[in-house]
Amino acid sequence: MIRSPLTNPYLLILPGFLLAAFIILWPLYQLGTISLNDVNRFGQLRGFNGVENYVAVFTDPDFLGALWRTFIWTGAIVIGTLVVSVPVAMILNEDFYGRAIARVIIMLPWAVSLTMTAIVWRWALNGESGMLNSGLHGLGLIDQNIQWLARASTAFPVQIMIGILVTVPFTTTIFLGGLSSIPDDLYEAAKLEGASRWQTFREITLPLMKPFLNISIVLNMIYVFNSFPIIWATTQGGPANSTDILVTYLYKLGFRFGKLGEASALSVMMFVLLLAFTVLYVSLAMRRERT
Description:
Shape: globular
Radius of gyration: 24 Å
Number of strands: 2
């Protein structure tokens, strides 16, 4: 029987693959070209300068601070989201009255624009007229206003908290899909054997949820690493660049200081760094599954 070329799966996915490759590789090529040239603030190339833009970024003291905060920002939000989302998903997976309404409430932050969410939080955290200070005053927990976003010691932790809150809905959705795929027979058998809830979670739920945990970690890592609106809408990297992460530092380089060559070099570095982390994590996860 002669097989039609239209039934070849590789041929069917080829158009989409080529389109995705063009969307990703062409901007990456342009960034690489700009990063290796001297560029004016209007984007005009003025000549090849090798790796000078990369050296300029590496020797900038603000870069190392932004890099370190990016690791803290990404790690804290990804881990915090996992810690919150797992129990929330398990609760929402139970059969109780009002479960549908509870699921809708959990998903609402995901439906709202991230920029709008950050702006609302900026109003709530206002040091003089914010709702958070008003609420704490009403409860008698503070006697003077706290400048939440004007101090480095409070601004960055608060932004991480906001990041966790807006990432929980997406992660909970992934976990709900995973929990719904686990057969009820396994839980019934464990109950008959006298297994506790913790033993059931450790021996049944967690192993079967590992693929969904890996998916959520990889996607959240990419999403959070490149997240711009929360930091920018609340503090714009301040006070004194103390809340800058790589993506806000990149924005300042390119659009506030007009250093397009250095901004392009940083973009390439961020792409390589994120790709390396993703490949490393996926490789380790696949190796653990084989063993």
